[in-house]
C-alpha cells in the first residue's frame, strides 16, 4: 500500500495469488530501480519509482491468512488502510527469499550475505565481537572455574540452593571442597516420568571425564505414574515393573561416587537436580554456556551436531538415552574449555541453526511430494544460479537497510540487528529509525507460545466452522409433500449451491442449503426471507451459535472492506452464457472497469454468478439499482454488494472441496479440553493492529509499505 497512487495491479479472481519470487520482484525494483538488473515486476507496475521515499516491510512471522480472517474484526486499521491483498503461495525459506536467496541456500550464502548488508564495515572481527558468546566471556581461554554458575545465576535459573526454604528436604551431595581448574568434571542426565506428585526421576546416568558410565540405573517413582513420556524418556511401564531402586538409593550412591570437588555438567541441569531432589553447588550448564541473546537456548541435539559433529536423539530411537546425553553435555563443556570462547564464537551457531531449520523445512516439503514428482522436478529445474543478496545490492548503492525484530525469531531466516524484547520497543525504535532508512524490515511477534500446532489446529477449525456457518442457510417450514426441485431452483438463483439437504428432525420439514460464495447466502437471507417458495411462506435464517452472534457485524465490515469498494455481485446467470455475452450486456453500465466470472477450479465450468468492479463507488451503487430485476436471456438477475475478495473466495472454494472437515471435527472434540487462550490472542492482535497503524501514519508520502503474514509453515 503506497501513500500515493504509484502502484497498479490486477486484483481480481486468479490474480489474487502471487509467489515469493513475484514479491521479491516488487521489493527489489521498488528499492533499487533499474540498478542491479532490477526490472519492473512481471505482475504489476510501479510508476515513478524514483519518487519513492522508501520501502517498509512489516513481517508478522507467526501469522498467516488464517489469522487475518480469524481476527478480521480486530485488524480494523490494517484492513481499512491496505487496499491490495494477495494470497502468497506456500514456500520454504520464505523470509530468506526477501534477500534474493535460492530455494536451498548454502549456509555461507545466507546469514553471511545478510550480515554484509547490515553495515558497510562488516568484517570477521566485528562479526565475532557481536557474537553473544564472545560478548559474555571475551576472547581469551579460561579455566573451567570461569564457567561454573555463580550463586546468583543458580538462583536466577532455578537451581536448588542450600539454605532456601523452597528446597527444604533436598539432599546435599556433600561436595564442599574449593573448586580449581583441575577439579574433575562429571556429566549427569536424568529422564523423568509424570506422576501424581509431579516430575519424578525414572532413569539416572552419570559419566566421568573420559565418558565412562559410573551410574546408569532405572528408578522407581514414589507416586503413581500418570504419563511415562515414552517418546522423550524411552521409559515404559514394563521397564519399571521389576525396578526396586528408590530415589534415596540413588541419592546415597551419588554422594558416594562424587569426590568433594566434583563439578557437575549437564544441559539444563536444574531440571535434573530438582528431579533428584539434590543440591550441588558447582555446575556447568551447557544450555547457558553456549550463550544466545535473551532467554533462548540451543537444544542439546543441535549443539552435538554443530559443535561435536555427532548425531544424538535419532528419530529411529524411542526416547532419549540419558547416558548419551550426559556424555554429550560433558564433551561440549570440555570442547568449550579447551578451545576457548573465541573459537566457539567462530562457529557462528546462529547461522548454522538457521541453515539447519531451512534445510529441515525444505526436507519436509520434499517428503510431501511423490518420489517420481521429485525426480521429474529435479530434471526440469535449471541449474541454480545464486542471485546477489538483496541487502548487499542495497549496500552497494549506498543505502543502509534497517532490520528490527524480536530476538526470538531470527531462526526463521531473518537476521536481527536489534535486541528489543517487546513489540512496543520495536515500534518506538522503528518510529525513530525508519525515516532515516530507505529500506526497512520490521518484525512484530505474537510470541512463541501462540504458534503451537494445537492452537493453529484449533484456530483453523474455528475459522472453517464459522465460514461454513456463514455459507449455510436454513429455509422453511415447508409442507410435507413440498417440491424439493422448485426449492433448489429458487435458491439457486441467488448463487452456486454446494449442497442441499432436507432437515426432518423438525415438526415440518426445512431445507439446509450451503452455498459456495458468501454473497449467495446473504442474498438468500435478504431476498427470500418471508417469500412464498414451493407453496409455503418461509423463513430464511442462518444457524445461531456462539461464534455466529457477530455474523451481522462481520457481514457489514466485509461489505465496507476497501477491497470490495466499487465491486458488486450478480447472480441468476444461465450456464449457457459466456463472458463475451456479459461484456456486451453490461457495456452500458457507467465506469465498469472489470468483470470476473468465477469458474469451478476442477471442471473449468463457469458459475451462475459474476463480479463487476467499477471505477467509482457511486457507479456501483447505480448499477445495483439497474441490475436488480434485470432479465438476461430469460433469466432474472439479482445483485448486491460484494463480500468476499478474490483470495477469500478461492480459500472458501478450497475449504468446501477439501476432505479436511471431518478431520477438523474430530480434532475439535479433542481440543475442547485445552485452555482457551483466544481472548489473550485477540488482545495481542488488536495491539499489533495499533502498532501497524502508528507506524504507517509516521511514514513519509510515497512510501511503499508491505505487510506479510508468512505463517509458520
Automatic annotation (TrEMBL):
In terms of InterPro entries, this protein maps to: Nucleotide-bd_a/b_plait_sf, RBD_domain_sf, REX1-like_exo, REXO1/3/4-like, Ribonucl_H, RNaseH-like_sf, RNaseH_sf, RRM_dom
Pfam families tied to this protein: RNase_T, RRM_1
Q: Does the keyword RNA-binding apply?
A: yes
Q: Name one GO molecular function term.
A: RNA binding
Q: Which UniProt keywords apply?
A: Exonuclease, Hydrolase, Nuclease, RNA-binding
Family annotation (CDD domains):
REX1_like, RRM1_NEFsp
> PANTHER family of this UniProt entry?
RNA EXONUCLEASE 5, RNA EXONUCLEASE REXO1 / RECO3 FAMILY MEMBER-RELATED
Q: What is this protein called?
A: REXO5 exonuclease
Say which species the protein is native to.
Stercorarius parasiticus (Parasitic jaeger)
